[in-house]
């Protein structure tokens, strides 16, 4: 390995240490996301992200979309989802939901107990996970 290659690699690492990873968007109050796994897929330019999303009682996540599909499995409590053309639908523990690529949706926990989902995203690699929509 040439000394130029080593210096370039060191510069990139140093820049990452100084600047850090790209900042994430602020989460709405009462919601948390815990990333479980992220992997490149065999489909070119695609990756999968699996995360647990927790909702405190009375919390909500505003209208947004993703650069890919989202597959939701409710693992705790009851959640409501707003989907285009379907309005608000209620899902309970064990229920599933598919959100198509770019589908604008919202979620909320209107109950008095915590709720959670397992979210699996099939994403265009390198794009931000969430884009909020007015």
UniProtKB/TrEMBL annotation:
InterPro entries: Cupin_2, RmlC-like_jellyroll, RmlC_Cupin_sf. Gene3D superfamilies: Jelly Rolls (2.60.120.10). Residues 52-117 form the Cupin type-2 domain. It holds the Pfam family Cupin_2. This is Cupin domain-containing protein.
């Amino acid at each position: 390995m040439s000394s130029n290659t080593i210096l370039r690699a060191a510069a990139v690492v140093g820049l990452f240490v100084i600047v850090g990873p790209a900042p994430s968007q602020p989460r709405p109050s009462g919601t948390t996301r815990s990333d479980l796994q992220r992997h490149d897929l065999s489909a070119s330019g695609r990756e999968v992200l699996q995360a647990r999303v927790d909702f405190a009682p009375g919390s909500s996540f505003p209208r947004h979309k993703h650069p890919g599909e989202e597959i939701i499995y409710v693992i705790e409590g009851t959640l409501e989802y707003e989907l285009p053309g379907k309005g608000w639908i209620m899902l309970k523990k064990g229920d599933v939901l598919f959100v198509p690529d770019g589908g604008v949706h919202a979620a909320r926990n209107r109950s008095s107990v915590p709720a959670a989902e397992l979210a699996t995203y099939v994403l265009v690699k390198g794009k931000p996970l969430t884009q909020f929509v007015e």
